[in-house]
Specification:
The chain is built from 6 helices and no strands. The protein has a single domain, classed as Four Helix Bundle (Hemerythrin (Met), subunit A) (Up-down Bundle), CATH 1.20.120. The longest helix has 25 residues. Helix 1 packs antiparallel against helix 2. The protein has 127 residues and is mostly helical.
């Protein structure tokens, strides 16, 4: 159980780190590549998280509250097409970059996904 919880903690830290990178971008030329990279990380890691929780029901009882918001995000948000469109025409437009970045951050905040992750990681820091 300790190994599983450390694994989940590591996954959640990666999501939190990518979220922080997205929050701290300044919407300047070149940021679209960073946005795309961090978004791909977040999407992939959320998929791993949901798979792990679903595949290990007896070990994941403490992590079930991540399942619903993670699945919701994966099922309802796909920013890659929009990013590809923007990259062709507006990759250096600060307002377009800000718009995409904020849309991604808002989607991650929906259903308290990032709030749950942050609260969990704060709890881990006190152990």
């Amino acid at each position: 159980m300790v190994v599983f919880s450390k694994y989940i903690e590591g996954i959640l830290r990666q999501i939190s780190d990518s979220h922080t990178i997205l929050q701290n971008l300044k919407d300047k030329p070149g940021d679209l590549d960073i946005i795309k990279k961090e978004l791909a990380k977040i999407t992939g890691i959320l998929q791993v998280l949901t798979n792990k929780i679903e595949a290990n029901p007896e070990e994941s009882t403490d992590y079930q509250y991540f399942l619903s918001p993670s699945k919701y995000y994966l099922e309802n948000y796909d920013f890659f097409r929009e990013i590809d469109t923007v990259s062709l025409l507006y990759s250096d437009d600060p307002m377009r970059l800000k718009g995409i970045r904020h849309a991604i951050l808002d989607a991650l905040d929906e259903k308290s996904l990032i709030g749950h992750i942050s609260a969990f990681l704060r709890g881990c820091n006190h152990d």
